[in-house]
């Protein structure tokens, strides 16, 4: 897994990685026996002489990783190499200056071709591993655009305006178009059948744009669809 992590962009302040599906982003009590993206970053920082012993505990504990994507989601992640860049990028996320675009394959034919899903998302009280649309949840907004419709499926470009956990997955389930091979939200039988074709959720962090934390230059980067996802598209 380590050798599948790609570097999309790097300078003295930031590192932008291309994460494969199947690797957890941050270390925790539940990841002691697995290699995480954070392990990769810490190894690289150590090799490059970047020190984490600063006064910013969050920067240290996360090894400069500014945001997260799910274990089974592939695509772009930003890492800050110093505290100043880390705090600047965190502020950009909070102020919604960072623009992210995902690609997903959804069940069914999504209509209209352009739309917005605006319903609150929160952790389910009866299942702490899952999220759902809850009246007491946090505001969540996802804009979408249809790329292609094919044989009962829709390929979508999605732009989350907010960054709630499992937001895109929950929102697509809410409109009755769950993501292909989503073991949590597509339904047991559907996801089981999907996973005979694809062993991961069909969700990819495709594009990101943000302002460079030191130069304030607009940076726009993208990650192409991984081979296992293009193979699925070619097969339907």
Overview of the molecule:
With 236 residues, the chain is α+β, with helices and mostly antiparallel strands. The chain has a single domain, classed as Pseudouridine synthase (2-Layer Sandwich). The chain has helices at 37-48, 57-62, 83-94, 167-174, 188-194, 227-235; strands at 6-10, 14-19, 74-80, 99-107, 114-118, 121-124, 127-133, 141-150, 153-160, 203-211, 218-222. The strands form two sheets. Strands 1, 2, 3, 4, 5, 8, 9, 10 and 11 form a nine-stranded mixed β-sheet that branches. Strands 6-7 form a two-stranded antiparallel sheet. The chain is globular and about 50 Å long.
Summarize the helices and strands and which ones pair or pack.
Blueprint: E1 6-10, E2 14-19, H1 37-48, H2 57-62, E3 74-80, H3 83-94, E4 99-107, E5 114-118, E6 121-124, E7 127-133, E8 141-150, E9 153-160, H4 167-174, H5 188-194, E10 203-211, E11 218-222, H6 227-235
Parallel strand pairs: 3-10
Antiparallel strand pairs: 1-2, 2-3, 4-9, 4-10, 5-8, 6-7, 8-9, 10-11
What is shown here, in short?
The protein has 236 residues and is of the alpha+beta class.
Low-pLDDT windows of residues? none
CATH class: Alpha Beta
Q: What's the pLDDT, averaged over the residues?
A: 94
Count of folded domains: 1
Radius of gyration: 18 Å
Tell me the structural class.
Answer: alpha+beta
Specify the helix fraction band: 10-25%
Strand content is 25-35%
Q: Profile the largest sheet.
A: 9 strands, mixed
Determine the N-to-C terminus distance: 28 Å
């Amino acid at each position: 897994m380590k050798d599948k992590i790609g570097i999309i962009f790097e300078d003295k302040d930031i590192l932008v990685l291309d994460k494969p599906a199947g690797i957890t982003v941050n270390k925790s009590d539940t990841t002691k026996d697995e290699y995480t993206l954070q392990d990769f970053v810490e190894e690289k920082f150590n090799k490059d002489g970047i020190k984490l012993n600063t006064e910013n505990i969050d920067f240290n504990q996360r090894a400069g990783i500014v945001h997260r994507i799910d274990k089974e989601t592939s695509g772009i992640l930003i890492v800050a190499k110093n505290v100043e860049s880390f705090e600047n990028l965190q502020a950009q996320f909070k102020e919604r200056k960072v623009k992210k675009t995902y690609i997903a394959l959804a069940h069914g034919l999504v209509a209209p071709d352009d739309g917005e899903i605006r319903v609150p998302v929160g952790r389910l009280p009866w299942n702490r591993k899952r999220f759902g649309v809850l009246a007491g949840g946090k505001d969540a907004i996802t804009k979408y655009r249809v790329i292609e419709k094919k044989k009962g499926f829709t390929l979508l470009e999605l732009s989350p305006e907010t960054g709630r956990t499992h937001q895109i997955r929950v929102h697509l389930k809410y409109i009755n178009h769950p993501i292909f091979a989503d073991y949590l939200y597509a339904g047991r039988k559907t996801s089981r059948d999907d996973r005979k074709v694809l062993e991961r959720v069909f969700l990819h962090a495709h594009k990101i744009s943000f302002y460079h934390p030191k130069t304030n230059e607009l940076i726009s980067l993208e990650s192409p669809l991984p081979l296992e996802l293009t193979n699925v598209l070619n097969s339907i």
